[in-house]
Amino acid sequence: MASSSSSSSPLMLFLIPFLLFSVSWASSHHDVHENLLQCFISQYSSIPISQVVYTQNNSSYLAILDSTIQNPRFSTPTTPKPQLIITPLTESHVQVAVSCSRKYGVQIRTRSGGHDYEGLSYVSDVPFILVDLVNFQSISVNVKDNSAWVQSGATLGQVYYRIAEKSKTLAFPAGLCPSVGVGGHLSGGGYGMLMTKYGLAADNVIDAQMVDANGIVLNRVSMGEDLFWAIRGGGGASFGIILSWKITLVPVPPIVTVFRLNKFLGEGAIKLLHRWQYVAPNLPKDLFLKAILDALPSQSGERIVRASFDALFLGSADKLAPLMEEGFPELGLKLKDCIQMSWVESTLYFYYFPLGTSLDVLLNRTRNKDFFKAKSDYVKEPISENGLEGLWNRLLDDIEVGQVIFSPYGGRMSEITESQIPFPHREGNLYMIHYRVAWEEKGIIASNMHISWIRKLYSYMAPYVSKFPRAAYINYRDLDLGTNHNNGLTSYSQAKVWGHKYFKRNFERLILVKITVDPTNFFRNEQSVPAFTSGGNKKSAFLCYFILFFILM
Ligand SMILES: Cc1cc2nc3c(=O)[nH]c(=O)nc-3n(C[C@H](O)[C@H](O)[C@H](O)COP(=O)(O)OP(=O)(O)OC[C@H]3O[C@@H](n4cnc5c(N)ncnc54)[C@H](O)[C@@H]3O)c2cc1C
Ligand SMILES: *[C@@H]1O[C@H](CO)[C@@H](O)[C@H](O)[C@H]1NC(C)=O
Ligand SMILES: *[C@@H]1O[C@H](CO)[C@@H](O)[C@H](O)[C@H]1NC(C)=O
Ligand SMILES: *[C@@H]1O[C@H](CO)[C@@H](O)[C@H](O)[C@H]1NC(C)=O
């Protein structure tokens, strides 16, 4: 149950020094903007404001806004833009961002790496400011107690690089794409090739520092265990601005083994994929074997589909070969297919950098961007060969650049209970599917066409995947699953549609935490955990609390 910590006391609200011009709430849009700017200027008086606040007039404004937009669908001339971009240098700058925007009724969107699939970290349809944590990138690795403090604006690549600098036998179990930001990734779960051995990134967080809706800086002790639970997988954007995370580093051998085997239709790829479903979730924890279907143009120009089987083994090649021979002989792995390397080198391999690429690319925060739409599913029963064939054939579609990734669960993922953190997809899941379609043409017509293709693919898959709810992964955010009204007035029956897909029964507990720590629903977006109050009406919050209490009993 949500406990009432001191931070949520309404009294604390008044501890924030609100000063400045008294504004009339009826002032025009332009005045609000001016006053908001003045609020920042006066509060940031001790530092050069030009380094922290960007107005739409500033010549760097668009470059900063665009810098980490990963999906150009949300970077068009008509995409709503923030009134101000704030790039805080210190935690007090973040506190001021909360107090000023709260004072002037302007929403905040927080961005770490900008990978949000629906652009929620930098787009809103109500007046908003963007707090971009680009200056919060520091990482301090402590090999003595296998931990690190990592700021939210750091990328996964930076984290892997800094760990490897200090140790060849420590790692962190997080995602594959090096430019993904720590802030969004850890607050939504975060998985990668170490998932069956060590769980999610969020499973390995042991402390955090955040600024709450009252502008107060909290750590694990002062936020309390309920809020600390919520930010590890519940999506950070509902609860505050998380500045940094303390993570546990996990042991890996100095040498790991990887392989990638590509199989085409003529080589029995569909049969192998069918078999994979029985094998991969039951392999030893040290062996992670995922499968990827990609649509490619062939030499003859026609579309073909390739299945690739990518594996990470925490051990040497001579130990891996017999394991595969025993567990999955059909795949036909040969010793010569295996490559030995350090764990950090394997992070490059799985992101398709050529062998021998310098580790420095992990520090590159930019990636090649394409228009895309993606969705996720969980699979609890193996899909029939027929079912897989239908999926395969859909990928052969001429105009679509589609990709489907199958990531096995099991191992450590099944040992952690559904309610340990808000991420609920544990025992009983064989694997997760990630569907993605990408395109290059600009404009809404192209975009609608490709999105409609992936929606049809998703309907096709319905009989084969989890039901009641049809579960989904919040870090693969999908607004097709349902949205709140951005004005905050959302009913429970409306919110639970998407809420149960991402969080199952943890959704109700997330709501209780939300009501306690952010009763006015200051931090919100189209898929934030709702507080079921408008303007901080305490009576209705109280009522909700009790209704939910009984739902949970
Ligand atoms: C190319 C690509 C590859 C990916 N690969 C993987 C993968 O291998 N494994 C995996 O699990 N996921 C993967 N993802 C998904 C990724 O984990 C999520 O998109 C994640 O939320 C991105 O975090 P971010 O900080 O980059 O995103 P942002 O867009 O900055 O943020 C995402 C959400 O979190 C909120 N948020 C961000 N920072 C904070 C903060 N400091 N405090 C509070 N709220 C915050 C934002 O407001 C937004 O709602 C991938 C995404 C892409 C685009
Ligand atoms: C824009 O911002 C930059 C960097 O923050 C600052 O140096 C510059 O003075 C600003 N320019 C204008 C026109 O405000
Ligand atoms: C931009 O600058 C013009 C004058 O140069 C000013 O009139 C306008 O108010 C400014 N707009 C913003 C959003 O700061
Ligand atoms: C970073 O990666 C991008 C995208 O691949 C590339 O265009 C750019 O040149 C790289 N930057 C550096 C400094 O290597």
Question: Which characteristics define this entry?
Answer:
single chain, about 550 residues, alpha+beta, Uridine Diphospho-n-acetylenolpyruvylglucosamine Reductase, domain 2, Uridine Diphospho-n-acetylenolpyruvylglucosamine Reductase, domain 3, Vanillyl-alcohol Oxidase, Chain A, domain 3, 7-stranded antiparallel β-sheet, globular, binds flavin-adenine dinucleotide
What does this structure look like?
- The chain is of the alpha+beta class.
- It has four domains: 31-134, Uridine Diphospho-n-acetylenolpyruvylglucosamine Reductase, domain 2 (2-Layer Sandwich), CATH 3.30.43; 136-251, Uridine Diphospho-n-acetylenolpyruvylglucosamine Reductase, domain 3, CATH 3.30.465; 256-340 and 366-473, Vanillyl-alcohol Oxidase, Chain A, domain 3, CATH 3.40.462.20; 482-552, no CATH class.
- The protein has 16 helices and 18 strands.
- α8 crosses α11 (385-395) and α15 (506-517) runs antiparallel to α16.
- Residues 55-57 line the site of one 2-acetamido-2-deoxy-beta-D-glucopyranose.
